[in-house]
Amino acid sequence: MDINVIFSFWLVSILFVLTPGADWAYTISAGIAGDKIIPAVSGLLLGHLIAALIVVVGLGAMLASHVLLMKFLTLFGALYVVWIAISLYKNPPVPAAYNGAAGELGETPLKWMKKGFIISGLNPKVMLLFLALLPQFVFPTFSFSITEQLLVLSIIHLIGCGFVYWLIGVSARKILSNNPALAIKFGRLSAMVLLILGSLMLFDSAQKLLVHLQ
What is the DSSP string of the chain? Predict the structure, then answer.
């Protein structure tokens, strides 16, 4: 593969990752909780990985052609994001040092991972991003097959996502770990951002679903 193509894809991909959204808000909450960064980021990356694999094996185009299924998936994903936001606002994460041995939220790393997966994995817009972005950087004339090129580009995207999300979580932990009151306020602010984004997703997906059903 051409190094210029790889760099161009990385640049476009990282710009998408650097755009604040539901993943940012969730990662910040995990950072405040202290020891939940890795499972939360792993969940987000797993969602991106599934979306990438769906596109790579050719199922993405098939799912995209089933408009009603995509709209139901979007609606379900938006509802779940809203539910997560409300839960985080009612029980904002507290720095690990002030959170007790079991953790005030009582949530295991696996639960944080599952929520991260839902936020990215059940958001069809992530898959549609792959559908729109990956083909632009695939060339049949390269020595690598199209499938191999798609896999390489997907791995590059996942590495960029992982680094950015990890950096966001670590930054939130370092800045807020010694100030539980500020951490709670910031956690609730992140939850509100997540709620707004989820509500916008919910309104948009519900509106499109109603139009499609009419």
Answer: --HHHHHHHHHHHHHHHTS-SHHHHHHHHHHHHSTTHHHHHHHHHHHHHHHHHHHHTTHHHHHHH-HHHHHHHHHHHHHHHHHHHHHHHHS----GGGSTTT-TT---HHHHHHHHHHHHHT-HHHHHHHHHHGGGG--TTSSS-HHHHHHHHHHHHHHHHHHHHHHHHHHHHHHHTT-HHHHHHHHHHHHHHHHHHHHHHHHHHHHHHHHHH-
Q: What is the pTM of this model?
A: 0.71
pLDDT at residue number 166: 93
Q: What is the pLDDT of residues 110-128, one digit of tens each?
A: 989 998 998 887 766 677 6
Write the pLDDT tens digit of every residue in 6-22.
888 888 778 778 777 77
